[in-house]
């Protein structure tokens, strides 16, 4: 998960410097869309296992839910 995020960030940085906005937008979309879906799924899983843990919710909001 962290490696994929780092590789996407490096790729976006490269696209930003070369002013290739189309590929930058596609890269951001294909990184964020699955990540948001995974976070929503993990929120429901963690809600079922434990109740009202603010740290877990904060980690999900920061897109770091799979690390928990």
Describe what you observe in this structure.
This protein has 68 residues and is mostly helical. It has one domain (1-64). Helices cover 78% and strands 0% of the residues. The protein contains 3 helices and no strands. It has helices spanning 2-17, 21-49, 54-61. The chain is elongated. The model has no long low-confidence stretch (mean pLDDT 79). The chain crosses the membrane at residues 22-45. InterPro entries: XK-rel, XK-related_adapter. Belongs to the XK family.
Global shape = elongated
Beta-strand residue percentage:
under 5%
Describe the biggest sheet?
A: none
Number of helical regions: 3
Count up the domains: 1
- Classify the secondary structure makeup into a structural class: mainly alpha
Q: What is the mean pLDDT?
A: 79
Would you count the extended β strands for me? 0
How much helix is in the residues?
Answer: over 70%
Ranges with pLDDT <50 over ≥5 residues? none
Radius of gyration: 15 Å
Features:
about 70 residues; XK-related_adapter; mainly alpha; transmembrane helix; single chain; elongated; XK-related protein; transmembrane
